[in-house]
Design brief:
Blueprint lengths: L3 H17 L4 H21 L8 H14 L2 H19 L32 H10 L4 H13 L3 H5 L6 E4 L2 E8 L3 E7 L1 H11 L21 H14 L8 H13 L4 H8 L4 H6 L9 H13 L1
Antiparallel strand pairs: 1-2, 2-3
């Protein structure tokens, strides 16, 4: 290959074109952000993005695992692997090899995300209380807790997609597949959100100031918010997905029908919703059956 400094621009161009070829707008944005994260990491550590070593990819993966849930790490590695595949598929390959191929670099198992624990109520409340004096972050954390929304849906929320209905607040949010769905915002979260809306201006509820508010914050910014207040509250090992798991589990604990929980979580399948359930289902069924039989016998 020629000088890797020169070829870097070609690699980034092709990788970004591959990212922008994805079907869903949300996926395109995530791919581009993944690429920028990796390229910046290589630049910061003095590595050539076109001549990556396995040890460099491994170190990058390990940093991801220290900050994100296994499913998120797997998604980032998969997107980078596909972009290296596109670079290698050029008439003149733009990289020496694909360091993110699962054959070269182990990914977190696909089933690990089902083991994500629900955040305890006491931990969630302590984290939210720690952000009480910062309206934006307070609103973000309340939305995580009370709506069960994915961080991407919260990050991309638009002011004009908030509507009042029957005395309550409803958000029209973008979910997986670039579809729009509704999410009810309970009073505590709505109060925190309205406090922030009285301060912020612009299209997005949570604008990215680096883009003068013309773009929303990136979903990873929500991880940073959560990490900051978790440290203050002395809660370790927490990430946004745990709030979603807690939301679904609590709804099922309350006896909300599975179909309704599925709709609230914006899942295409009830099977997916059930995989988020961390409740102890069925433990009292045998006793209930035995008691009923005795009653019937009498």
């Amino acid at each position: 290959m020629s000088d890797p400094i020169v070829r870097k621009a070609d690699f980034v161009r092709v990788a970004k074109a591959h990212a922008l070829s994805r079907a869903a707008e949300g996926t395109r944005a995530l791919y581009v952000f993944d690429l920028e994260r990796w390229v910046n990491w290589c630049d910061d550590n003095g590595h050539y993005v076109t001549r990556p070593k396995l040890e460099h990819a491994t170190a990058f993966r390990n940093e991801l695992q220290a900050n994100f849930a296994p499913l998120t790490v797997r998604r980032i590695l998969a997107s980078l692997s596909s972009m290296y595949g596109a670079a290698l598929n050029q008439e003149t390959p733009l990289a020496t090899w694909n360091p993110f191929s699962p054959k070269a670099l182990p990914w977190p198992p696909a089933t690990e995300y089902t083991q994500t624990e629900a955040i305890a109520d006491s931990d969630a409340e302590a984290i939210i209380d720690a952000a009480a004096d910062v309206p934006r972050d307070h609103a973000i954390l309340w939305l995580l807790r009370e709506t069960g929304l994915r961080r991407a849906s919260i990050a991309a929320l638009r002011r004009n997609r908030l509507v009042k209905r029957d005395g309550g607040l409803v958000a029209k949010v973008t979910v997986k597949g670039n579809k729009e769905r509704e999410a009810a915002i309970p009073p505590s979260a709505a109060a925190a959100l309205n406090r922030w809306l009285a301060i912020v201006t612009g299209v997005y509820v949570f604008p990215d100031r680096r883009w003068r508010g013309e773009k929303p914050i990136h979903p990873s910014a929500i991880n940073k918010v959560l990490d900051k207040y978790a440290r203050i509250a002395k809660v370790s090992g927490v990430h946004p997905h745990q709030f979603r798991v807690a939301f679904i589990t609590t709804a099922l604990d309350r006896g909300v029908p599975l179909r309704d929980v599925q709709e609230a979580a914006h899942h295409a399948s009830a099977d997916t919703t059930q995989r988020y359930d961390r409740g102890k289902r069925g433990l009292g069924v045998a006793d209930a059956v035995a008691a009923f039989r005795q009653e019937r016998k009498r």
